[in-house]
Amino acid sequence: MKVLILGIDGYIGFPLAMRLMGEGHDVYGADNFYTRKRVRGVKSGSAIKINSMKKRMELLNNKIKFFYGDVSDPKFIYDIVKKSMPDAIVHLAEQRSAPYSMISLKNANETLVKNIKSTMNIIYAVKDIKRDAHIVKLGSMGEYGTPNIDIPEGFFDVNYNGRSDYLPFPRMGQSWYHLSKVDDTYSLMLSNKIWNLNISDVMQGVVYGTRTKEINDNRIFSRFDIDEVYGTVLNRFAAQSVIDMPLTVYGKGEQKRAFLSLEDSVTCLNIILNHPPEKEYRVYNQFDEYYSLNYIANKIKESSKTMFDKNIKIDHLKDPRVEMEEHYYNPVNDNLKNIGYRRVRKIEDEIPVILKDLNENKKSIIKYKNTIMPKTLWR
Length: 379
Ligand code: USQ
Description:
The protein is of the alpha/beta class. It is 39% helix and 19% strand. The protein has helices at 13-22, 34-41, 53-59, 74-84, 98-101, 105-129, 176-195, 233-242, 262-273, 293-308, 334-338, 347-359, 362-367, and strands at residues 2-6, 26-31, 65-68, 88-91, 134-140, 155-160, 163-168, 198-204, 206-208, 247-250, 256-261, 281-286, 289-292, 314-317. The protein has a seven-stranded parallel beta sheet with strand order 3-2-1-4-5-8-12, with helices on both faces. The chain has a three-stranded mixed beta sheet with strand order 9-11-13. It has a two-stranded antiparallel ribbon with strand order 6-7. Strand 1, helix 1 and strand 2 form a beta-alpha-beta unit. The longest helix is centred in the first third of the chain and has 25 residues, at 105-129. The relative contact order is 0.16. Bound molecules: sulfoquinovose-uridine-C1,5'-diphosphate (USQ). The site of sulfoquinovose-uridine-C1,5'-diphosphate (USQ) has 21 residues, from helix 8, strand 10 and strand 11.
């Protein structure tokens, strides 16, 4: 299969490229190092040192064809789709931080414009150049918000005033970032309806971890963000514990979120690529399990005690976000299970691996320490 990965330099993009290459696919990738630049912009960096793209390509024996450019530029997308004529395009190239989108009007607009435009560019390039290509688009479990009912995969049966229909499940994103993903979802749905494009829309939970089965060599780590803007919760708690900082649980910590390891994320995307839809728009809720933030914080605390005999404190900070701190949460993830997904890494086994890797990178966590405490306020 010929696969074009947009955002190949990212946390998930690079490990996915290694997985696909290892399975004998022809991998093409695009990136403009937007995340590297934006993370530097908040005076942070990957807590685990990563190589330049040139070096990354060399380590992979220059088997990947890399295109430098911006996915929100239609000319660039048309050009690379023409050059690669892919069987599948994996779109991981959006602005991916909810806090970043909440900093100012400029950040909100940048997120909305960049994300919505990039998805539109891909839709049109596929329609015009390679209509049978499979678009695998990274959305977010956060598109659904936290409704007081079960969360299905994209659609549900509705009975209203004596009539019934099968309709998109309500989306209630809690940041401009999440709303940009909601917009993508509706654009993809429409593109399937009018042009029969093959779409897998992936509602992914919070990803954690330092390793996949390909990351067994210290030279090929993926990036690992810990700052308040780009770091996600479990990875941040792990980094905080390594430098003996209290864990920064926002609010009561009874917020529940869907999680999966980096290995499981790459595994799921690979399975989805191997199951292209036939002129269908399919939604996958991509996660392994859901947990409360208190549960995650306690797991990190326990592992720090067992591994390093530390007594890490758990702080409950006033929540900088506007979100429910206690709520019902019950999403399903049957669609992935139905095409063969089974959890690869258990959270209990993965946390000690993360702590060990981060402990070896303690100096760099200390270097970025000032970027850890939350400053971005939703209110
Ligand atoms: N949180 C803390 N302490 C922290 C950081 C976060 O308690 O130090 C809490 C947040 O308030 C939130 C939860 O942890 O309730 C998750 O926050 P997060 O920063 O890990 O994740 P989020 O902002 O939701 O976004 C991340 C990715 C995004 C992806 C999303 C999946 O950045 O790209 O779409 O996870 S989901 O959360 O399912 O929407």
